[in-house]
Amino acid sequence: xxxxxxxxxxxxxxxxxxxxxxxxxxxxxxxxxxxxxxxxxxxxxxxxxxxxxxxxxxxxxxxxxxxxxxxxxxxxxxxxxxxxxxxxxxxxxxxxxxxxxxxxxxxxxxxxxxxxxxxxx
Length: 121
Description:
By secondary structure, this protein is mainly alpha-helical. The chain has a single domain, classed as Orthogonal Bundle (Arc Repressor Mutant, subunit A). The chain has six helices and four strands.
C-alpha cells in the first residue's frame, strides 16, 4: 500500500501525480501553447499570439512565464533572451507530445467528429 501514488495521510486519498499534472497544464491556454509549440518545434511570441487569436498579450506573457519559471528545474521552456521569446519545448515538454496527440485524437473522435485536422502530416 505504501507504493501507491495516493496520499492517504488524510481520510480522503489524493492522487499527487494527477494534481501535479493539472498544475502544469492548468489554465485556459497552456494546453494550446504546448500543442502549437510541439507541432511547430519553435514559435515566436507574435506567431503564437496570432494562433491563439483571442488571447491578450498580457495573458500569453503570464502563461509563458508560469511555464518557464515553475518548471525551469526540469528544463527551460522558453526564451532566447530577456526581450525575445523563441518558444521551444524542453525535454519534459517533448515527452508530453504523445499525451497531446492522444488528447487531439480523442477530441477529434468524440468532440469534433466532422473536423478536418489541418495539422496532420
